[in-house]
Amino acid sequence: MKKLLKEYFIITIGIIIIILGFEFFFFPNNIACGGVSGLALIIHNILGTEPGIIMIICNIILFILAFVFIGGSFGIKSMYAAFGLSIILSIIEKNIKVMAITNNLVLATIFGSVLLAMGTAIMFTQNATTGGTSITAKILNKYCHIDFGKGLLISDSIVILLAIYTFGIELGLFGLLSVYLIGILVDKFIDGFNLCKQVMIFTEQEELVVNHITKDVKRGCTVFYGKGGYTQKQHCIILTILSRAQFIKLKKFMKIYDPNAFITVNETTEVLGKGFKNILE
C-alpha cells in the first residue's frame, strides 16, 4: 500500500507540472503541442466544443487500446493521470483566470515544452502517462522498441498538421517545435531519473572494499582478478552499479581507507534486475 501511494503521489506531481505548462504557456498562446490536449484545442477553435469533452472521448478510445496492448496497471494509472489532469484543468478554467507568463511565442514554446516533458517523464517512470498520444507512444516503445520521445513525435504529427490548418503556419510551426522539444527532453529526463554509476575499483584491499559495498552501501558487486600489463602483478577488480548517492558514500570511504585504489566511473542510463528496475517492466 505504501508503495502504491508513493507511485500515485509521484504521478500527481507530474500532473501539476504539466498543468503549469498548459495554463501559463501553451493554452493562452494557442500553441497546440500535439496529443489529445492539442487536438482538443484545435476542435474547440473550430467547433466551439468543450475541450474537456473531446479529451474524455479520445482518451476512452485510447485507454481501451492501453488495456489490450499494454496491460491493466498502465491503464489504471494513466486513467488517474488523464482524468485528474482533465478535472483540474476544468476547475481552473471555470474558476481562475490564468494569465500567460509570456506572450513571446519562442519563450512560451521552450518553457512550456520543458514543463510538459518533465511531467511526462515523471509519470513514465511510474509506468503511466496522461493518456492521449502518450499511449500510442508507449505501445510503439513496447512493441517496436522506439524511444518513448520519438514515439510521441510520430504520434503527434497529425495533430500538428491540423494545428497548421487551424491556427496558421506560424503557430502550427511553434506547435511542431514544441513536439520536437518534448520528444527529445522526455528521453533526456527519463535517462536522468534512471542514471546510475558503473564503478570499477582496482584495489589491494579486496575484503575491506567488498564488505563496505555489500554491508554499508547495501549493493552487490562482482570481483575479478587480472594482471597488470606493466607491473605483471595480480590485482583485484571490483565491479558494482550504484546510485549517485551510493557512489558519493563509496567515494568518501575510498578516500579515507583506500586512497591508493584506481577507480573508473561510467554513467549508465538503465539498469535491470538485482535490486534495480524489474527486467519484466
- Profile the largest sheet: 4 strands, antiparallel
The tally of helices reads 10
Low-confidence stretches: none
Number of strands: 4
What order do the helices and strands follow?
HHHHHHHHEHEEHE
**What is the count of distinct domains?**
2
SS class: alpha+beta
Strands of the widest sheet, in order across it, are: 2-3-1-4
Helicity level, as a percent range?
55-70%
**What is the first-to-last residue Cα distance?**
19 Å
> What form results from the Cα inertia axes?
elongated
Subcellular location: Cell membrane
Transmembrane segments: 7-25, 52-70, 104-124, 158-182
InterPro entries: DUF2179, N-reg_PII/ATP_PRibTrfase_C, UPF0750_membrane, YitT
Membrane topology: Multi-pass membrane protein
Describe what this molecule looks like in 3D.
This protein is an alpha+beta fold and 281 residues long. It folds into 2 domains: 2-193, no CATH class; 196-268, Alpha-Beta Plaits (2-Layer Sandwich), CATH 3.30.70.120. 65% of the residues lie in helices and 11% in strands. It is built from 10 helices and 4 strands. It has helices spanning 2-26, 35-47, 51-69, 72-95, 105-124, 133-143, 148-167, 169-193, 206-216, 244-257, and strands at residues 196-203, 222-227, 234-242, 262-268. The protein has a 4-stranded antiparallel sheet with strand order 2-3-1-4. A hairpin with a 6-residue loop joins strand 2 and strand 3. It starts with a helix and ends in a 13-residue tail after the last strand. The model has no long low-confidence stretch (mean pLDDT 84).
